[in-house]
């Protein structure tokens, strides 16, 4: 079965480098990612744009918009990109210039959506500072992907990343589709309700475990841990709105896929691992068609 990994990273972030070498033990390069894709039938990935200007500064308040995939030069052909937004630069004299750069990047065919780092940046997602970004999302029919739940930095503030904040946003912006990242973990029941209630809200299952096989085995064999997520999935009962993502390099792709196969009932695997991505990210179809044409 082909797989689309809708949540990976390929940015020069110090914490990603350290996690790859010390915890997940993956080769954090484009070549390393491609090798894992090939080994696991992943035909396309979506990278979440984020940058830091100073080593270890993530979330970096000085990063210019739009934030992209800067680990290596350019976006590899087997990836698309969600352009990252730094809201700290969307106020003041430079606002229009920042928005112009965001819009110009959104017109590129390899751009699949927009990424907000709620919690990392200290704004609620329904704050008026993001209003022009949502206007652009509606104009180009692109989804907005939102970090929710625990932050991979002690400098995040959890009140801004709670999935319930997306409920108000989804109500205000019915013309835009949103994706809650990480199922809002640890507030997975709240995220499940937001997805179930709002027709324009989806969720990904990325980043729920970080590390290598021994770490995964410990959690996959702990019923309380697995039931934490299963309860939310059963309650939501909208597997057509759940998407597979790994949060690579935080975990090896094959290992993470094994985890999600254990978590999601088998009859929903094709939707979660593949088909649902086409519903949320409208540009995926064209990108995959181009890849298939090139492979002939």
Automatic annotation (TrEMBL):
Residue ranges occupied by any Amidohydrolase-related domain in the UniProt entry: 4-282
Keyword Hydrolase found: yes
A GO MF label: hydrolase activity
Top-level taxonomic group: Bacteria
InterPro entries in alphabetical order: ACMSD, Amidohydro-rel, Metal_Hydrolase
UniProt keyword list: Hydrolase, Lyase
Pfam families: Amidohydro_2
Keyword Transcription: no
Protein name stated in the entry: Amidohydrolase
Originating species: Paenibacillus riograndensis
